[in-house]
Design a protein that fits this description.
Blueprint: H1 3-21, H2 23-47, H3 53-107, H4 110-115, H5 121-137, H6 139-165, H7 167-175, H8 183-221, H9 227-237, H10 244-248, H11 250-257, H12 261-290, H13 295-315, H14 317-337, H15 344-360
Length: about 400
């Protein structure tokens, strides 16, 4: 390899290393792009009613702020109150557990009673004391991680507003990274990505709305406290396929357990049925209408992005897969593989070499009947003497 090729290889390796080191920042930037795409789509819809671009953007951002404030008021204060009640009922549960153990020891006597372990709730608490101290010691790290999440969220909001204010300038700057002959093609690919992301957002909103509605009806029938908060949380966690529905069942089952174990069992069955409906009917139909993503591809993408990028990669696995699908289809398949034509002279030379090899080892191999009829269209550099040229 020449010196210039070595320099290019080293530059490529250094670029990949730098991109890997800043992968979390790139994911936050991608999240801002996804959010800006959704708001830009809403702004364009409002512009159809004769509104100016600035007013439409302001209304879109105001709508987003109202959604965030509403979700916070619906979910956080009720759950905080229920968590406080849960901590208050915790000692009562421990006392009931101690009474239950005493009843078992009093009922079983003799040889069966001797075989039962001597359980003392105070000993259990003393054994769990180191674990409790470890959890308290990790509270500082939890607070630090929470602060980091809040700062990342604010960064995404700021980047979204900056991108939404003048999207064409950022788009033009991105296309400048490509050769001049390919920039128009990149513009078309970016249009395809915007359309695909918009369709994914619509499909995700439809799925969230249906899951929220079904959860609200089921929890209201079962008379579970905070039915609306649980339903909204189930709809939000539906953004994480295959994992979010499993996480959404924990809060309602825990709260229903405070009333009766039977109610918590009914809540679990309700969420199981909703999850089966969502994974087997709702999501495949909606996503097939919006973006063509195979279930296996979705699962593999979640595992891949969660492994290399953590929780944020898991949260953005679907939009990342949608964008990657567009780039693979447009660049790799259409622009590279479909345009990869082989020279006819090269094919003829390969065919001749194969037949000569067969003849050298004494193997007779008949050529295909259609091969002699094929004619190679070679360029004719000589001037054709047509009546027009004369």
């Amino acid at each position: 390899m020449k010196l210039g090729q070595w320099m290019g290889l080293l530059a490529l390796i250094a670029s990949c290393y730098i991109l890997w080191q800043i992968r979390q920042a790139l994911l936050l930037l991608f999240a801002a792009v996804v959010l800006a795409t959704a708001l830009n789509r809403l702004a364009r819809y409002l512009q159809k009613f004769g509104l100016k671009r600035s007013i439409a953007v302001l209304l879109s951002v105001s709508f987003l702020v109202l959604i965030f404030v509403g979700l916070f008021l619906i979910i956080v204060p009720p759950f905080a109150e229920q968590f406080q009640q849960l901590t208050q009922r915790g000692p009562q549960g421990i006392a009931k557990l101690n009474e239950w153990i005493d009843q078992i020891e009093s009922r079983f006597s003799g040889q069966i009673g001797q075989r039962l372990p001597n359980l003392d709730i105070n000993d259990i608490i003393q054994q769990l004391q180191p674990l409790f101290n470890q959890l308290v010691g990790g509270a500082g790290a939890f607070v630090g991680n929470t602060l980091g999440v809040i700062l990342s969220f604010l960064l995404v909001i700021v980047l979204t507003l900056m991108t939404l204010a003048d999207p064409l300038s950022y788009r033009k700057g991105f296309t400048q990274l490509f050769p001049s002959f390919y920039r128009r093609r990149i513009e078309g690919i970016l249009d395809e990505c915007e359309i695909a992301l918009g369709r994914w957002v619509i499909g995700a909103l439809i799925s969230m709305s249906v899951i929220t509605f079904l959860s609200l009806i089921g929890l209201s029938v079962l008379q579970v406290p905070l039915a609306l908060a649980h339903a909204v949380l189930a709809g939000l966690l539906n953004l994480i396929p295959n994992i979010g529905p499993g996480l959404s069942v924990i809060p309602p089952v825990t709260i229903a357990l405070l009333d009766s174990p039977l109610k918590s069992g009914f809540v679990f069955i309700l969420y199981f049925l909703i999850q089966q409906f969502e994974s087997n009917l709702l999501t495949p139909y909606v996503m097939a209408q919006q973006v063509a993503l195979l279930p296996a591809v979705t699962l593999i993408a979640q595992v891949f992005f969660a492994t290399f990028f953590g929780f944020l990669g898991l949260l953005l696995a679907l939009p990342l897969t949608v964008v990657a699908q567009v780039w693979v289809r447009e660049v790799l398949i259409k622009d590279i593989l479909n345009q990869w034509h082989t020279n006819p002279r090269h094919l003829a030379a390969i065919d001749t070499a194969i037949h000569e090899e067969y003849e050298s080892i004494g193997v007779t191999h008949s050529k295909p009947e259609s091969l002699p009829e094929q004619k190679l269209e070679l360029p004719n550099n000589t001037e054709s003497h047509t009546p027009e040229n004369q």
